[in-house]
């Protein structure tokens, strides 16, 4: 089966917000979530209103808002970071502003659709060749697709690494198609080589990853009582075929020329009311991903389900448990974390096609997301590696 990879348009920025400042920065979070608010009482010529990264119907090409027990993390188009978040951060006290991080590097986003790949395979298919090429990534699994954030400066290195891996590049260099062969080794390319050469194979990469975790005191842990559900929102313009994971077109009323570009005409306002309600209550865990091609994807604390009613679809009977890795002591340019952790679990747990494994990268943390039973087994594998080292 094939994995299809596409470069999304635009450059994106990663923002870390400490939980103690979540309430102070909730307003810009909601402004980004609700992009139509930028046009209210604003001059059309005002530069701060000409924000990029939106489709013709004023929806985000890509947006991720994640609230976890460790932090709030936002991935948004760079114009939204500079025009919406930075002014609010500048209004904070110097001590408060210093705790918020807007990453200096800009990122590009790769959308991954793994037709026929099991969940673990989707994670490994892209993280493996990029890790072996020494390219740092952030990985976000959603209900429909997976997304990989890579520094914009690494674009050519990404193309070379994926090409070496067997991915076939389209003529416009914006799409890849590859056979499922993540066991093969990729060549190493990097515009900014790390201090040591990239690992030569997956096993060496795993060893380096866990050695680094030990040196930086990174320990895996679960948040007591936290159970997650993975859902999709019912969007007016794109309803999801939940079981086939395919999008289908649906009929809707005829739109006038004016309301074709109206944000509210193209989304389920009830769903967005539920999302705002969940964000306002400062959830223990909620990761929302919006893209131009998929309905909204929501990975959230099970206790939030009553807020959403029937505005979502998905298997809400299945519980997932996140295993958190606090990466605050690691630099953002570190490589191999996703592939090293996921690869070790895939091998040691002998995961099959029916196994569920997702990964969520936030600004300063990572979370391996597994079923309840799998998470217990995974912790039993990870803790000895970090507490005692490999024998």
From TrEMBL:
Origin organism lineage: Eukaryota, Fungi, Dikarya, Ascomycota, Pezizomycotina
One GO term (biological process): carboxylic acid biosynthetic process
Region annotated Disordered, chain positions: 180-203
Pfam families recorded: ACT_7 (PF13840)
Protein name, per record: CASTOR ACT domain-containing protein
Database matches in InterPro entries: ACT-like_dom_sf, CASTOR_ACT_dom, CASTOR_mTORC1
Top-level taxon of the source organism: Eukaryota
Record domain CASTOR ACT: where: 104-164
